[in-house]
Write a structure and sequence with these properties.
A hairpin with a 5-residue loop joins strand 1 (about 25) and strand 2. The chain has helices at about 5-15, 35-40, 50-75, 80-115, 120-145, 150-185, 185-205, 210-225; strands spanning about 25, 35. The protein has eight helices and two strands, in the order αββααααααα. It folds into two domains: about 1-15 and about 20-45, no CATH class; about 50-225, nmb1532 protein domain like (Four Helix Bundle (Hemerythrin (Met), subunit A)). It is mostly helical and about 230 residues long.
Length: about 230
């Protein structure tokens, strides 16, 4: 079994933990149920480089949701669990800035630049990475301090600014940059890129880095009282 296959199985076990063995995750055209194990056997669940990056964007989007709530509390004078806000910023720094964005800057962006493809978009994405890191540094510093009213307003503005930039940033990568990656590198290089990503993830985040990030962001959501997805249904 190759590294990508092992990683795929590991992530499926994580995502299906606590679920019933009879959990139905899909149906064929004839209406037959398909179990996670059957998906493994069919080889339909290979984790590609683009899928890896998009999953990490999912962690980022959940952190952005926490930032939304924190900004609202700061603006309305409500209590903010600053330690958990700091934990959110630390998660963004560790998983998104120090890992995910470094992957993009070192292994994706140069390929687009060398191919002369989406060069203007890549230039904007690079600048936004730098801007995001500056905001994260401010959030980390503010979350460890006692906030006066003016400080609360400035921190809320920083959180809003981060979210306003990163929502379209991640969406543009998901819908424009990542889909073009396979085309410019070819199948063999694309598969090799997946192996590189796995090795770098283990080195940077440790074993099960993505899974641990999901657990951490879920814990933060509970601390903010944002863990009940059903409450968001209009």
């Amino acid at each position: 079994m190759g590294r990508r296959d092992e990683r795929t199985l590991s992530r499926r076990r994580f995502l299906s933990a606590g679920a019933s063995a009879t959990l139905i995750i899909g149906c064929s055209g004839k209406g037959a149920a398909t179990t996670p194990r059957e998906h493994d056997e069919e080889g339909e669940g290979d984790v590609t480089p683009a899928e890896d990056l998009m999953r990490e964007h999912g962690v980022l989007r959940r952190a952005i949701f926490v930032y939304d709530d924190a900004a609202h509390r700061l603006e309305t004078g409500a209590q903010v669990p600053l330690d958990q806000l700091g934990a959110t910023a630390a998660l963004i720094k560790r998983v998104i800035e120090d890992y995910h964005e470094k992957l993009e800057e070192q292994h994706l962006f140069p390929r687009f630049e060398q191919a002369g493809t989406l060069v203007e978009l890549v230039a904007v994405l690079r600048r936004q990475h730098d801007a995001g890191r500056a905001i994260t540094s401010r959030v980390l510093a503010s979350a460890s301090a006692t906030l006066a009213d003016a400080d609360r307003a400035q921190l809320a503005a920083a959180l809003r600014s981060f979210n306003r930039m990163y929502r379209p940033h991640a969406a543009r990568e998901d819908t424009v940059l990542f889909p073009a990656l396979h085309r410019i590198v070819g199948r063999k290089a694309y598969d090799e890129l997946g192996e590189q990503f796995e090795d770098i993830e283990k080195k940077t985040l440790g074993e099960g880095g993505f899974e641990k990030a999901v657990v951490e962001v879920a814990r933060i959501e509970r601390a903010f009282g944002l863990d009940d997805l059903a409450k968001l249904t209009p």
